[in-house]
Amino acid sequence: MYQQQQQQMQQQQQMGALQARFNAIDTDRSGTITVQEIQTAYQQFQFSYQSAKLLLQGISDKAFIDMTNFPLFDQYINSFWTAFSQVGQGMPKINSQQVLQALQMLRFNFDPNILNALVMKYDKDRSGVDFGEFLSICSYLLVVLKLMGKFDPQKRGFLQIDTNGLASLAMWFL
Ligand SMILES: [Ca+2]
User: Fold this and answer.
1) Cα–Cα distance for residue pair 21/12, rounded to 1 Å
2) Which pTM was predicted?
3) How far is the CA of 40 from the centre of ligand 1 (A)?
4) Which residues, listed in sequence order, are joined to residue 33 by a DSSP beta bridge?
5) Ligand 1 centre from 33 Cα, in Å?
6) How far is the C-alpha of 90 from the C-alpha of 145, rounded, in Å?
7) Which of 18, 130, 132, 163 could link 47 by a cystine bridge, Cβ 3.0 to 4.6 Å?
8) What average pLDDT does the segment 14-34 reach?
9) How far is the CA of 32 from the centre of ligand 1 (A)?
10) CA of 27 to the centre of ligand 1 (A)
């Protein structure tokens, strides 16, 4: 009985912490987190509205995050942050080699040439990759993986699409 109570209390505490993290991002207290709110949450970093939109799309099929999919959102952000801080050993910026290491830790198994090209895209001033830029790269890759799942349901590992298919796929990145 005591153990059960303890477990219940722990669960409640975890839920409380999760709800607190949700509320910190849901600044207008609407019960949903919008793209704008995601961007604002990371505004101290190089993190654009476009990247916030990719992050949301990579995680949710809805146009917002609510308490049903926030645990997943929270889990992703935590794992991205953990990988970023581990390879950078707490430094505010990491280099392209460290980005590749962190992405490997996160099991984003892409060709290093592609990943380096992505780093060049997001680290425009070549000053090193801050957490926002890293989050942008992760968000982009999340959407790519999501699209593979959608357009390659048989998991053949490649897409065969016509012009209309490309037009519809490319819209995800607009
Ligand atoms: Ca809101």
Assistant:
1) 14
2) 0.90
3) 11
4) 65
5) 4
6) 28
7) 132
8) 94
9) 5
10) 6
Digit-coded pLDDT (tens) for 47-104:
999 999 999 999 999 999 999 999 999 999 999 999 999 999 999 999 999 999 999 9
Query: Which residues are placed with Cβ below 5 angstroms of ligand 1, an ion?
Result: 26, 28, 30
Find the 79 Cα to ligand 1 centroid distance in Å: 23
Query: Token pair of 172, please?
Result: 């995800």
What's the CATH number for 2-173?
A: 1.10.238.10
Q: What sign does the CA torsion over 61, 67, 71, 76 have?
A: positive
Query: What is the distance in A from the centroid of ligand 1 to the CA of 46?
Result: 21
Dmax (CA) of the chain: 63
Determine which helix (DSSP H) or strand (DSSP E) holds 129, and give its type and residue range: strand 129-130
What's the 62 CA to ligand 1 centre distance in angstroms? 14
Whether 151 and 165 have beta carbons less than 8 Å apart is answered as yes
CA of 48 to the centre of ligand 1 (A): 18
Instruction: Tell whether the model's pLDDT for residue 2 goes beyond 80.
Output: no
pLDDT of residue 1 exceeding 80, the answer is: no
- Eight-class DSSP state of 43: T
Give 11 Cα–ligand 1 centroid separation in angstroms: 25
CA-based radius of gyration for the chain = 18
Q: Which 8-state DSSP code applies to residue 173? A: G
User: How far apart are the C-alpha atoms of 110 and 122, rounded to whole Å?
Assistant: 17
